[in-house]
Each structure stands twice: as structure tokens, then as C-alpha cells.
Amino acid sequence: MAKNYFILLSIFWFAVHFVAISQNINSRPGLIQLKVHDIYTAEIGVKEFTGHNDGTRVEQFLASCHLRKGDPWCAALVCWSFKQAGVVTVISGYSPVWFPSKKVIYTRGKGKTPQMADVGGIYFPKMKRIAHTFFIDKWEYGSSFTVTVEGNTNRDGSREGNGCFKKRRLKTQIYKVSRWL
Asked: Helix axis angle, 74-85 relative to 29-41, nearest 10°?
């Protein structure tokens, strides 16, 4: 009788822990962060064909959020990358839409520490809005800088560049960060 009780207890313990472990593995944010990271970093080096927001890859990014050839595509890269990873987000190439209050984790140096695959935005006073969107790739601790991956930029960090680049930006340039994972 005690032997049967021990066997049943062991099976129950294993079943409970197996379910808990498998649910944890399937829902770990780290795994989806890595998937999104792999997708957007694979796009580093994509260039516009003529320098006018065009080219096969750029047009795929634009199409992912219902934009046309020639439209700005920084937020389209973000949208496309999340779609490729199967992450449910907004479907938009308009930068401000990526920062709804319930998703914002960081504003002007305050809030949670941004992580890989969070979405960053730069505010442009002339436009009175966030007008450039990108992925946070690495938040450097003890540094004034962060590493980003950005579409529709250039080596100088313009919001109207000609490709997808890995950049080092001053943290003070980043107005908001949203978390979709």
C-alpha cells in the first residue's frame, strides 16, 4: 500500500512539474526576444535601391504594414520583424503608434530598463512627435550609450537614411521605449 502511494505521489509530482516546466519554456520572454533579435539583426546591411525608400527588401517591410514604395520605413522594419516572429502588435508604419501608454516602459531616462527587442523612439520637436522608431539591441549598463538596430537610417543616425544599420546612440536621444514581448 505504501509502495503504491509513493508511486502515485511520484507520478503526480512529475506531472505537475513537467506541466510547469513546459509552460515556462513555451512562454519564456527570453526565447521570443532571441527570435525577434535574430530576425531584425539579419536585416542589418539592407540598403535602399535608389535612396528613395525603395528596393525589394524595403518594399517587403513597407508592405507588412500597408505602406507604399517611397514611404518612410523605420517603423515598417519593426512591424515586419515582429510579424515574422509571430508576435501580435500594431500593424503600422507610423512611428508614434508604437508607443501606446500601456506598452511604454521608459520615458526620458525614467522607468524600467530597456531590453533587447524593445522598441525605441526619438522625438522630433519640429514634427511635435516621435518620428523615428527602432529596436533596442543592447542597453549598456554604466554607459551613456545603447546599441540599436534601425531601418531607414544611415551611419550618421538620420531618420531618412538609406539602409538598416546597427548604431550606438546616446541614451539621452531616446524619448520612449515600448515593450511588446
From this structure: 130
Write the CATH number for 85.
3.90.1720
Asked if residue 66 is part of any domain, the answer here is yes
Q: How far, in whole angstroms, is CA 81 from its chain's centroid? A: 8
**Does 20 fall in a domain?**
no
- Give per-residue burial for 145-165: e unless 16+ CB within 10 Å, then b: ebbbbbbbbbeebebebbbbb
Nine-digit cell at 161?
Answer: 537614411
* Helix, strand or coil, per DSSP, at residue 2: helix
- Count of C-beta atoms within a 10 Å radius of residue 180: 16
Full-prediction pTM beyond 0.70? yes
Q: What pLDDT, on the 0 to 100 scale, is given for residue 2?
A: 55
Q: Is the pLDDT of residue 32 over 70?
A: yes
Nearest to 78 by CA among 96, 63, 98, 59: 98
